[in-house]
Design goal:
This protein is α/β, with parallel strands linked by helices. It has 22 helices and 27 strands. The chain folds into three domains: 337 residues, Alpha-Beta Barrel (TIM Barrel), CATH 3.20.20.70; 137 residues, Rossmann fold (3-Layer(aba) Sandwich); 108 residues, FAD/NAD(P)-binding domain (3-Layer(bba) Sandwich). The chain has an eight-stranded parallel beta barrel with strand order 3-4-5-8-9-10-11-12, surrounded by seven helices. The longest helix has 20 residues. This is NADPH-dependent 2,4-dienoyl-CoA reductase.
Length: 673
């Protein structure tokens, strides 16, 4: 049978070695690098992806010295005694025919510790520490440290290294006038600013010899003021090739950039255009990155000649068998990354272990396992939202007889609301995945089937799992019975008509989603050119950093997003995605007001008090998004009848509809029964 992805699955010949396909697992810090016995767990994590068919893996960033560490106890490869633990990883990966490169990452001013150094004494907005400006001697020592790290990686059995020259880390800081204010030979002209990067490349190649992969992560789009000019990107790419790079990987955006690059609202493959332009100027293979989460997108980029490989990091967290499923022409069985960041990047930036919302086994390969059940049980699951779906599939996979009951005529629960939000189209993929997995694992699905304690008892189940979800929290307020008032469920499920002026009571995740839904007519996520214009990404690359004036967005609705708390509206949203949601609504003129006391609803609208002053919001509708309550009536009825039940998901804790916790809870219960 002819491959559906001939370009994606084609080997890449590098001369001295060959990569078995065009899929590169991009670098991603997991937190295991710093845990006790973490490298043993890392080996299992990377082995699962190698076994799943990935051609080339790049590890999370490892520092070449103490000052370059991400954090005080961050991982470092600088001494011979560090080598042994890395050998666990390389052996595990290579036994499956995959190759693996260690990423050498010096954080520079992004270091989260007081020993940070940088080209100039300029504090980064994402770190509380001001770096010291590096002396000439420190610069030369750091170049030697990169070479030493590469040599040690070679001794540890790695097939190569990736030199991290993008995302606003140390090498990138030297390259851009934004962060390099030096007046010596390491600053000023581009020849001087690029001297550090080229010296590192030269030293690394000399340290490892010709038959060793060296990937250089080139910042093609800085997306910050004072970043690269386009001609500088091309000049550097050619110089990097001349210094012996094997591959050039794309770097898109600094961590401090105010342009989103990886969240779910970014269009798929949104930045492959710049990789294509660089590829035309060099003769070594180049790698496209960011929001490439299906085999189809990867195949399209390669077929169009925009890149020679495609990099995916989070999609391989979501499904370790991504490549194997593509090879088997089962892409509809891939557990697609929805780019939510909730369990991966948000965790890493909070010094927690990374995992994945849709795949809680990611980074827990040695802990959250699903061996065949020793005793087959007959289990009833009530509710086919994320928690019920996850539990049912894992339990059936273990060999249990699972009956999943859902009162509605479709699976998905609250995900059926989320998938309607502009910028959250990826949630359709999770429901497609679970729909197929229910069939593949043999779950007995009963749609349109409400359950009572009596019906469950009559079914003679060994265990009952309640994933019955939540109900919207009622708001106690004078005039709440008004026809002007509706809940978020009536908007997103029942599609009740909403007026031109709207007040939202509650500014948590649901409130933000409803505001986005009400103010967006056509999702820019589905139109990369429109999205780029809205965020000020200049594809003509006329200015440094490829930035242009963001195109204003308009909405035919005026929306007030209100909360009782006095803290910043949206403070509780995801660490790496919340700012995007706030910026998106701000562009559309949404009024975000904290510290609100709700007084009453009248025919004129909603009366509120802010900072001791009363005001009337003359709105057509008031939509309540004031949280949820667990739906547990069935638990009480079962307990009265003498039947215990397990609670998971929203039925257990209704805190801001936490799908990450719900799916993990379902998986952990399935592993335990």
């Amino acid at each position: 049978m002819a491959s559906a992805y001939p370009h994606l699955l084609k080997p890449l010949d590098l001369g001295f070695t060959q990569i078995k396909n065009r899929v590169l697992m991009g670098s991603m810090h997991t937190g295991l690098e710093e845990e006790k016995n973490g490298f043993e767990k890392l080996a299992a994590f990377y082995e699962a992806r190698a076994k799943g068919g990935v051609g080339l893996i790049v590890t999370g960033g490892i520092s070449p010295n103490f000052r370059g560490r991400v954090q005080p106890f961050g991982s470092e490869l600088s001494r011979p005694w560090h080598v042994a633990k890395h050998r666990q990883i390389t052996a595990a990966v290579q036994r499956h025919g995959s190759k693996i490169c260690l990423q050498i990452l010096h954080t520079g001013r992004y270091a989260y510790h007081p020993f940070a150094v940088a080209p100039s004494k300029l504090k980064a907005p994402i770190s509380p520490f001001t770096p010291k400006a590096m002396s000439d001697r420190q610069i030369r020592k750091t170049i030697k440290h990169f070479a030493r790290c590469a040599r040690l990686a070679q001794k540890a059995g790695y097939d190569g290294v990736e030199v991290m020259g993008s995302e606003g880390y140390l090498i990138n800081q030297f390259l851009c006038p934004r962060t390099n204010k030096r007046t010596d030979k390491w600053g000023g002209s581009f020849a001087n600013r690029s001297r550090f990067a080229l010296a590192i490349m030269k030293a690394v190649r000399e340290a490892v010899g010709p038959d060793f992969i060296i990937i250089y992560r080139l910042s093609m789009l800085d997306l910050v003021p004072g970043g690269h000019e386009y001609d500088e990107v091309i000049e550097l790419a050619k110089a990097i090739e001349a210094e012996g790079a094997t591959l050039i990987n794309s770097g898109i955006g600094w961590h401090e950039a105010r342009v989103p690059t990886i969240v779910t609202s970014v269009p798929r493959g949104a930045f492959s255009w710049i990789t294509a332009r660089v590829r035309e100027q060099v003769s070594i293979p180049v790698v496209a990155v960011n929001r490439i989460n299906t085999p189809e997108i990867g195949e399209e980029i390669l077929a169009k000649g925009e890149a020679d490989m495609v990099s995916m990091a989070r999609p391989l967290l979501a499904d370790a068998n991504f490549v194997a499923k593509a090879e088997a022409q089962q892409s509809d069985r891939i557990n697609t990354c929805i780019a939510c960041n909730q369990a991966c990047l948000d965790h890493v930036f909070e010094n927690k272990r990374a995992s994945c919302l849709v795949n809680p086994q990611a980074c827990y390969e040695t802990e959250l396992m699903m061996p065949p059940a020793t005793q087959k049980k007959r289990i009833a699951v009530v509710g086919a939202g994320p928690a019920g779906l996850a539990f049912s599939c894992y339990a059936a996979e273990r060999g249990h007889e699972v009956h999943l009951f859902e009162s509605n005529n479709e699976i998905g629960g609250q995900f059926n609301y989320a998938k309607q939000i502009p910028g959250k189209e990826e949630f359709h993929e999770t429901l497609r995945y679970f729909g197929n997995r229910l069939m593949d694992t043999g779950v007995n699905l009963h749609l349109g089937s409400s359950q009572s304690a009596e019906s469950l008892l009559a079914g003679r189940f060994d265990d009952v799992v309640l994933a019955t979800g939540v109900v919207p929290r009622a708001v106690s307020l004078e005039g709440i019975e008004s026809d002007k008032v509706m809940s978020y469920v009536e908007v997103l499920r029942d599609h009740k008509p909403v007026g031109k002026k709207v007040a939202l009571i509650g500014a948590g995740g649901i409130g933000f989603d409803v505001a986005e839904y009400l103010t967006t007519s056509v999702s820019p996520t589905l139109n990369p050119d429109e999205w780029s214009a809205i965020w000020g990404v200049d594809k003509t690359y006329q200015e440094r950093g490829a930035l242009s004036q963001p195109q204003p967005e308009s909405s035919d609705r005026e929306v007030w997003l209100l909360q009782r708390k006095t803290s910043k509206v949206g403070k509780g949203l995801g660490k790496t995605s919340g700012w995007v949601h706030r910026a998106t609504l701000k562009k559309k003129g949404v009024h975000m007001i904290p510290g609100v006391t709700y007084q009453r609803i009248t025919d004129e609208g909603l009366w509120i008090e802010v900072d001791g002053e009363q005001q009337l919001l003359e709105v057509d509708n008031i939509i309540t998004c004031a949280g949820q309550l667990p739906l547990r009536d069935l638990q009480h009825d079962l307990e009265v009848a003498g039947q215990s039940a397990h609670l998971i998901g929203g039925a257990d804790v209704a805190a801001e509809l936490d799908a990450k916790r719900a799916i993990r809870q379902g998986a952990e219960l399935a592993a335990a029964l």
